[in-house]
Design brief:
Order of helices and strands: HHEHEEHEHEEEHE
Number of strands: 8
Largest sheet: 8 strands, mixed
Strand content: 15-25%
Shape: globular
């Protein structure tokens, strides 16, 4: 995307676009004609499987109020107990917290370009797919990537964070679990 095209995009999409460009990511954000606030809307709008949508779910860590970002496959639900075992006790994040901490509104939270670096966990079930799509900072914005791109873009690694995960090799206790990287 050239500079002129960037200025017509919403601010959150501009931030995501710059972060992707800076990382050398080959796919720029695209704006869908309809909203992609939910994984179902995004999958329908893109004509892909629900699981190919990398949905970003924000929690608030109780110990220090830091945002915890869980990027999970669209056909999975986050298992809050698994997440808490990895990062400490968490609670729900309301829309005001999500906007203030990430700079994105719910329905457009990207896995990259947050205003404040979250603790990030990546759902290992995303690796079932060759290609996935993630929110690009706006309810109509998405970008294409491969699951193996996520660790480089987010500084995080794959973990067992979903209910009914297709993997059962993940670590199950905090003593065994590596601490997730906090983006810098």
């Amino acid at each position: 995307m050239c500079g002129a095209e960037l200025h017509v995009l919403p601010e959150g999409v501009q931030r995501v676009s710059r972060a992707l460009q800076d990382a050398g990511h080959p796919h720029a954000p695209v704006m869908l004609g309809g909203a992609a606030r939910t994984a179902h809307e995004a999958a329908d709008g893109l004509g892909v499987q629900l699981g190919q949508i990398a949905k970003s779910v924000i929690f608030k860590r109780k110990a220090d109020g830091v945002a915890v970002l869980v990027v999970t496959s669209g056909d999975r639900r986050v298992d809050e107990k698994k997440v808490a075992a990895l990062v400490g006790k968490i609670g729900r994040a309301d829309a005001d917290f999500v906007k203030a901490y990430t700079g994105f509104t719910i329905g457009g939270v990207s896995p990259v370009a947050h205003l404040n670096p979250p603790v990030t966990l990546l759902d290992q079930d995303l690796w079932r797919f060759e290609e996935i799509w993630a929110a690009a900072g706006h309810p109509h914005g998405v970008f294409r990537l491969h699951p193996q791109d996520l660790p480089g873009l987010t500084g995080a690694s794959a973990a067992d964070v979903a209910q009914g995960s297709s993997h059962d090799t993940a670590l199950s206790s905090p003593a065994q679990a590596p601490l997730p990287k906090e983006a810098s």
